[in-house]
Amino acid sequence: MTVAGLAKSSFVDYPGLISCVLFVPGCNYDCFYCHNRTLLQKTSGTVAPEDVDAFLKKRRGQLDGVVVSGGEPTLQPDLISYLGMLKGLGYKVKLDTNGSSPEVIDEALRAGVCDYFAVDYKAPATRYREICGGNADAGPVLGTIGLLSENHVAFEVRTTVIPQLKKGDLLTMAGELPRLPRYVLNRYRAPEVFSPGDRARIEEAPYTEAEIRAFAEEIRVFQPNVVT
């Protein structure tokens, strides 16, 4: 698997565990607020595989888990076997995904190579292409979330509360989703790298933490396990 970046230690990316994060290049979305824009192209710089392998073997017993993030990991052709390798090293494995490839998630479930999933649900279904760019479609994402829910595995869904999402949008999204074990509302922070044409959207004032907490209270009717 191609690794474009490595965060050697994280206390926040895997709930309850100390982990490292592997970032893979390439994504089939083009979200204007993406914080990993340099990873969108598959030609992004890479970390030597032998360096990643050496690090993972050295940190066994010191780190609890490995998070595979991106970019979009499900675009990697050898993702399932790589996750299996991480499990073989004794790590708990978390996969971050935009949810656009339910068939890959189904394969991961059948292989038993992932302990925790995090899926981004980015906008109401009718606004997915507007927010995520390209041919983004909420249908496969909802399919992925439904698959995880039906299999009763450990997972969370995340929404970054960008300024373009209003309270009505968030309530619609909460109603479009099945009841989730954990629904995380993340505060928007402007990325340092973005497309020049998106400057106006990027510079819109973000919601305050108090405003997001207020949204969460209203969403709780649909999603009682919402957190901020």
Describe the structure.
The chain has 228 residues and is an alpha/beta fold. 32% of the residues lie in helices and 18% in strands. The protein has helices at residues 49-58, 79-88, 102-111, 128-132, 138-150, 167-176, 199-202, 209-219; strands at 5-10, 19-23, 65-69, 92-97, 116-120, 155-161, 183-187, 226-227. Strands 1-2-3-4-5-6-7-8 form an 8-stranded mixed β-sheet. Helix 3 (102-111) packs parallel to helix 5 (138-150). The two termini are 33 Å apart. The mean pLDDT is 95.
**Total E-strand runs:** 8
**Percent of residues in beta strands?**
15-25%
Order of helices and strands: EEHEHEHEHHEHEHHE
Shape: globular
SSE class? alpha/beta
Helical content class: 25-40%
Helix segment tally: 8
Q: Sheet with the most strands?
A: 8 strands, mixed
Radius of gyration: 17 Å
Give the strand line-up of the largest sheet.
1-2-3-4-5-6-7-8
Mean pLDDT: 95
Uncertain regions: pLDDT < 50 for 5+ in a row?
none
Terminus-to-terminus distance: 33 Å
